[in-house]
Amino acid sequence: MAEQQDHTAEALTSNVTDTALLFEGGGMRASHTSAMVAELLRAGVHVDFVAGISAGSSNAVNYLARDPLRARRAFVDFADDPRFGNWRTFLRGKGMFNAEYIYEHAGLPEADLPYDFAAYRANPARLALAGFDAVTGETRWWGREDMTTLQDLMVRVRASSTMPILMPPVHLEDTVYVDGALGVDGGIPVTAAEEAGLTKLLVVMTRERSYVKRPERFPAFYQRAFRRYPAVAEALVTRWQRYNATRERLFEMEREGTAYLFVPEVMPVSNGERSVAKLAAAHELGLAQARREMPAIKEFLGL
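Given the sequence above, the corresponding structure tokens read:
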């Protein structure tokens, strides 16, 4: 990757130490929010605590690698890769999104979407990613101590991003994991910031302000599909409550001045969008909004 910066010889530093940077999940809606990764980096905003769930995990680790180009490619151009996944991979048991390839192979040094693990290691910022334990129903938070190799990191990004039904669960740490969005916060990693002792938040969200998640229309389908993992069925059926409650709490923090919320003015794509043209347009919308808001974000962060 010719444009990728080489951070192997430089020590990286953080310039925001009192705020948590949180990335919401949302599948390919991250084509829009990955623009915030790029713009924060271009603006020299280096936050010392970063957390992500599901697609937000990819945004988080790309931010820590300080790689704005990969942030875009991961949710725009990469969708054109024939190995990205489709009905054929789904029917072969690899998922509608070919997760093993996307997360555990494409990021290798000589692969199509190489990840700058040297930069990740050189970055002092703390990291928290969430997975959902399909057996116990508990939210698992992974930190840097759990991700000391590239493989350790990428398999946990995959686990955090494993959308039930669409992607096969991940067997890891003697248990089974699915999408972290099923957990305590419903998809926005506020609990990670709380557990780190941070009360000031910069939150990158993937739904418009007017959005309200509705109850699942077919709960019996999930109960049948996850007979082996009833905790997953229960979490899917009740997730709307946790998600809406988390958003309401964040809007209250915004009113109090303790949170800055980057909320899409328009979200033109769904979580399963595959059109590179539509994903690129979503990214451009995100860039324009991020550039407009960057002065206010930097003021909020004291930069």
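The chain is about 40% helix and 15% strand. Try to locate this feature in the token string yourself.
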